[in-house]
Amino acid sequence: MKKLHLLRTHLINAVPGLARDPDRLLTFVEEGSIEFHRGPNLSHEYQFAAQLVLTDFSEDLDTVMLPLLQWIADYQPDVDPGEAISFEAEIHNNKSVDLALRLRLTERVIARVDCETGSIQVEHALPHFASNECMATHWQLSTRGPGEQDWTLTSEWDAPDG
Q1: Tell me, what DSSP letter sits at residue 159?
Q2: What per-residue confidence (pLDDT) applies to 132?
Q3: What's the pTM value of the predicted model, to 2 decimals?
């Protein structure tokens, strides 16, 4: 599940609180399955729900959501936008929550079988569908709340490039 590792790395690099303490990002795989075809071909696809839990999260929700949406656009562009992400939050106090994000991921595995030598070469296909609309490689997120005049820089990150 290399795709989940890529996502984790991207969020740690993009979200300031996770960059300071990456152990606050827990990752789980739920409802995993493998799609394959009968026969000598061992290529397959992992299909699973990834759950990411951000513990004691006190930042603006957008500091997580925007890098996550950007990553999904690049690495899982075929996902149904209406079903791409769900979340739950346990509110601890006025300053922090435990935030659980859930998204469906797929990861194609190409297995090349050589019957003569008895060897199998495995490659995880992680296509990167970078949007040509925005060529920026570094991003800054600024936010402002209701009634606020000024924008506040809340996060910076490099575009997901795999």
Answers
A1: P
A2: 56
A3: 0.79
Answer whether residue 82 shows pLDDT above 80: yes
Beta-carbon count within 10 A of 84 CB: 15
Closest listed residue to residue 101, CA positions, set 37, 33, 18: 18
The pairing of strands 25-36 and 97-114 is unpaired
Residue 32 in tokens: 């995993």
Question: What would the two tokens of residue 67 be?
Answer: 């890098």
Q: Which of 43, 159, 46, 66 is nearest to 112 (CA)?
A: 43
- Residue 107's nearest CA partner among 75, 63, 60 is 75
Query: How far is 129 from 142, CA to CA, in rounded Å?
Result: 25
Tokens 């995880």: give the residue: 124
Confidence category of residue 130, pLDDT binned at 50, 70, 90: low
Number of other CB atoms surrounding residue 15 within 10 Å: 25
